[in-house]
Write a structure and sequence with these properties.
AB_hydrolase_sf; 12 helices; Rossmann fold; about 270 residues; AB_hydrolase_1; alpha/beta; about 15% strand
C-alpha cells in the first residue's frame, strides 16, 4: 500500500525511517508494537491538510533498519525520539502516541527533557502490570519462537495483530502490518522486540506521572482486549491536567478500528490543548 518514509535518521544501532507531511503547526505521531507508522496513515493524511505531520518507524520496526544485536528497547526508543525532535527542529510540538509509543513519549519527556505543547495518548503501555499471557510466553521462549518455519511464524503474527482489532482488519491493512515481520530480517526482529520489552522501563517513570505539567488527553478503545479501558481511567487519574475518552466500537488498534472518531479526537486535542 502507498505509505512511504523517504527520510533517514542514522543512529548507532541502525537507520530510522521517517516522513513529513503537509505544512503548518507541527504534530508528531508515534506508533506502538508490533506495528508501524502505517497505523496512523488515514489520520496523518487528513491532518496534513493544515498541519505539519511527522511520522516515523521506531528502530527495528516497519521500514526502519532491522539487524541482529540492536537495542530496540523502550530505553533506546525514548532517546532516539528525543534526538529526532532535535533533528526536526521541534521544540514544543503536539505529540500523539499509541501503545508502546505512549511509553516512548512519556520516557522522552520525563527522562530526556523532550518538551511538548501537549500529549495525546491512545491505549498506551504506561502502567504495570503489562504484557498478555501470549506476550510473556513468547518473551520467555523467544529463541524457540524465532526458529519457527516461516509460514507458521507469519500465521502467528497475523493472528496476533488481528487480535488487536475489534471489528477486524481489511486484508490489505493486515498484510501491511504483518509484512515487516516476515523473512530473514523480519522474523528475528519480531521476537527481538518482544524479548527486550521490559516493564522496568515504565516502572522507572510511572511514579513521576504526577510531575507532568502539560495537558494530556487519554483515549481508549472501549473494546480493547489487550489493555482494558480501566487502565486508561487509572492513568488519567495520575495526570494533573488530563481528560479521558472512550472510543466506542474500537479495540486496541483504535486508529484503524475507528479512524473518523479518532481523527475528531485528535483535531479537538490540537484545538484545545494549549
Amino acid at each position: 500500500m502507498d505509505w512511504n518514509l523517504p527520510e533517514e535518521f542514522v543512529t548507532p544501532d541502525g537507520v530510522v525511517r521517517w516522513a513529513r507531511l503537509g505544512a503548518g503547526r507541527p504534530v508528531v505521531l508515534l506508533h506502538g508494537t508490533p506495528f508501524s507508522s502505517f497505523v496512523w496513515r488515514a489520520v496523518a493524511e487528513e491532518l496534513a491538510g493544515d498541519h505539519q505531520v511527522f511520522v516515523w518507524d521506531m528502530l527495528g520496526y516497519g521500514r526502519s533498519e532491522m539487524r541482529p544485536g540492536q537495542d530496540v528497547s523502550l530505553r533506546a526508543q525514548g532517546r532516539i525520539f528525543t534526538d529526532l525532535l532535535a533533528e526536526w527542529g521541534l521544540r514544543r510540538p503536539h505529540v500523539v502516541a499509541h501503545d508502546f509509543g505512549g511509553a516512548v513519549a512519556l520516557r522522552a519527556h520525563l527522562l530526556h527533557g523532550a518538551e511538548y505543547a501537549a500529549l495525546a495518548l491512545f491505549d498506551p503501555v504506561a502502567l504495570s502490570p503489562w504484557g498478555s499471557p501470549f506476550f510473556r510466553l513468547v518473551q520467555e521462549h523467544f529463541a524457540v519462537f524465532e526458529r519457527l518455519p516461516g509460514n507458521l511464524h507469519a500465521a502467528l503474527v497475523r493472528e496476533y495483530v488481528l487480535s488487536a482489532s475489534s471489528p477486524g482488519l481489511a486484508p490489505g491493512v493486515l498484510d501491511e502490518l504483518v509484512a515487516p515481520w516476515t523473512g530473514v530480517e523480519g522474523q528475528p526482529a519480531f521476537y527481538r522486540q518482544i524479548a527486550q520489552a521490559d516493564q522496568r522501563y515504565t516502572d522507572e517513570v510511572q511514579h513521576r506521572y504526577g510531575e507532568i505539567e502539560i495537558p494530556v488527553s487519554v483515549h481508549w478503545g472501549a473494546d480493547d482486549e489487550w489493555i482494558p479501558p480501566a487502565k486508561g481511567a487509572e492513568l488519567a487519574a495520575l495526570l494533573p491536567r488530563s481528560d479521558f475518552h472512550l472510543v466506542p466500537g474500537a479495540g486496541h488498534l483504535v486508529q484503524l478500528d475507528a479512524p473518523g472518531p479518532v481523527l475528531d479526537l485528535v483535531l479537538r486535542f490540537l484545538r484545545e490543548a494549549v
